[in-house]
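Feature request, filed as a ticket because there's no other form

It would be nice if the structure record came with a short human-readable summary line next to the tokens. Right now we just get the raw output. Example of a typical job, pasted below so the devs can see what we mean:
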Amino acid sequence: MEYKSFVIDLAERAGEIMRANFSLGMKKDWKADNTPLTITDTTINKMVIDEVKKNFPDHALLGEEESNMNTSEYVWVCDPIDGTIPFSHGYPTFMFSLALTHNGESILGVLYDPMLKRMFYAEKGKGAFLNGEPVHVSDVSSFKNAMVNLDADIRLIDLRNKLIDKDAYTTTLYSATYGASLVICGEFVAEVYEYDKPWDAAAVKIILEEAGGKVTDMAGNDQRYDKTINGFVATNGFVHDELIKDIQEALK
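Raw output as currently delivered:
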């Protein structure tokens, strides 16, 4: 099967499940890391595992809720719902995220916002697309009046204050991919993700860089996306070095 049609079909199917199950008063369990888990998360995760097994039996899959790992150099990395906190609490900032990595490098990815039906897609060297049309990051080179999404980690409070001092607007969407998608289409200048989960980063890496931006770890270095990561910083490229410096100072 051709990769593009495979991932877009999966994203659309995942989106249908999310839309059907999105409601107020949603039942949820709480995992050991104090994040919620819904039946929708596990249903979509299992669907992706089953489809990868069927269509690419030699590939591995690393998922947030369940994995099917082997020694393959090709690893699919999936977050069935990035943004389960908003999904399970009634506000629509969540996405389906799926990437294919080769020896740890993201080579294609899809991000899908099922509520607004925004489908972001990219393959290495072929550009990034939103609903089939080319999409590009902004050329903003200052944080003044710029939007930045920050994760809720308490370690980023000092960074938030630094950005506010630069007249930036900071927010916390509780979905790293949702924040990154707004960088991809030029609305935000940056997304900062402090945690170590690769499924929140793998698709962002390929799509945002194909859209002209830059994605590194928290120290400004490249990294693999098929195993634990050192967070990620996703920007339009123009503010990247300044933001990395601010992050390092804030985390001292």
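Something like this underneath would help us a lot:
The chain has two domains: 3-132, 147-250.
The mean pLDDT is 96.
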